[in-house]
Design brief:
VC0802-like; Rossmann fold; eight-stranded mixed β-sheet; seven-stranded mixed β-sheet; 15 strands; 23% strand; transferase; rRNA (guanine-N2-)-methyltransferase activity; Class I SAM-dependent RNA methyltransferase; RNA binding
Length: 397
């Protein structure tokens, strides 16, 4: 149990450009950030406190609890330092563990070799202390050890998450070119939606944006959809701590809410996928599902709300000339049908963005996988005018 109560360095990782939203989430939960960087934050907390973070964070990927920092130049240095750790107090020798790593060392040609060194050191230590060899492999659903090794600086962590937190557990049917749940949550945060006015998601695809909006508005945390984490496979784990946190998650759900979320797509299959994913998430009754061209998407005329598009970028799907017309139509739709709303288009194609025909008031940087993307914001005032073509080309992206 002792390791669960000892404070140590904890690194919470996230995908590039999600760090500002992760920082907001962590501080909102009452934690003090020691350091923030492009792909995460650093805290000084106990392993038990990691349980709450794993269950609540929407934008995180992994939560790593440091058990040792050391200097290592060669693979033999690494082996010796790892084998000196009291693994018999951390890993059940009758259990199973895996090793992941982030390695940048001139003496290692492949991270897989570093992983193997870590595995050998752990296995040899446990065999010496317990007389039995534990099983190991690539399955991340049990105990996970993570190595960070850059030049001569090394850190060994217990990965308290296991499978990435960026997947929120409700999307059983991904659909075509899906947006990762953590990214979708970041996009919803970036719109600064008030969680009360309408949230309109034309061209919804598998519905991740609309579903994440519903989850955020009703305070449904990702931990409600998942029952296995890395911390559960570290010796000393007390399951009552986990179930106590889950009870808090259930109690904080906002059940009675007056909310208008619309998810539309021209594809009947896409809308059905969205409906089924929303049902798994428990928010299907909060979303209006519409099978229609995006121009026919019903937009409440209350003069306030958010409309968010995540169209094709021309990378995997569609024909570029057809997409040019689609982007122009999106601009026309927002200008004519969404007056008073804040409009957003998430795209990874700056050339197509120029066809929207509206001036972006803000451009928020994101990555979708490895693709450099922008969330373009448009203030859709009544009587908003189209800019001259030259101005659009200069100002839009």
């Amino acid at each position: 149990m002792q390791v669960f109560h000892n404070k140590s360095k904890v690194i919470i990782t996230c995908n590039k450009r999600l760090s500002p939203y992760l920082q907001d989430e962590v501080t909102a939960l009452g934690y003090t950030i020691e350091r923030a960087f492009a792909t995460g934050v650093e805290l000084n907390i106990s392993l038990t406190e990691c349980i709450k973070l794993n269950l609540n964070l929407r934008c995180a990927s992994q939560i790593l609890y440091s058990i040792k920092s050391f200097k290592a130049i060669t693979p033999d240095d690494l082996y010796n330092e790892i084998s000196a750790i009291e693994w018999e107090d951390l890993i059940d020798f009758t259990g199973y563990f895996s090793v992941t790593s982030n390695v940048d060392n001139p003496n290692i040609t492949t991270p897989l070799f570093a992983n193997l060194k870590v595995k050998d050191a752990i296995v040899d230590r446990l065999k010496e202390k317990k007389g039995i060899r534990p099983n190991s492999g690539s399955d991340g659903n049990k105990t996970v050890v993570h190595l960070y090794w850059k030049d001569a600086e090394a850190d060994v962590f217990m990965d308290t998450s296991g499978e990435t937190l960026a997947k929120h557990g409700y999307r059983k049917i991904p659909g075509k070119a899906p947006m990762l749940e953590a990214l979708a949550a970041g996009v919803v945060y970036a719109t600064q939606w008030d969680k009360k006015s309408p949230f309109i998601n034309p061209m919804c695809g598998s519905g991740t944006l609309a579903i994440e909006a519903a989850l955020i508005a009703t305070n449904r945390a990702p931990g409600l959809y998942r029952m296995n984490y890395g911390f559960m496979h570290i010796m000393g784990y007390n399951e009552e701590e986990f179930f106590a946190e889950r009870r808090i998650l259930k109690d904080q759900v906002i059940k009675n809410i007056d909310l208008k979320i619309v998810a539309s797509d021209i594809s009947e299959d896409a809308v059905e996928v969205t409906r089924r994913n929303a049902k798994t998430a428990g928010v299907d009754t909060l979303i209006d599902f519409e099978v229609c061209d995006f121009e026919a998407t019903p937009v409440p005329e209350n003069g306030k709300g958010v409309v968010v598009f995540n169209p094709e970028y021309g990378e995997r799907l569609g024909v570029h000339s057809q997409l040019e017309l689609t982007y122009k139509r999106m601009g026309d739709f927002m200008k004519k049908e969404c007056k008073g709303y804040s409009g957003y288009i998430f795209t990874g194609n700056p050339d197509l963005a120029k066809k929207i025909g509206l001036k972006a008031s803000k451009k928020v940087e994101f990555y979708n996988g490895k693709l450099d993307c922008r969330l373009l914001e448009y203030e859709l005032y009544d009587g908003s005018r189209r800019l001259p073509v030259n101005d659009v080309q200069q100002n839009d992206l």
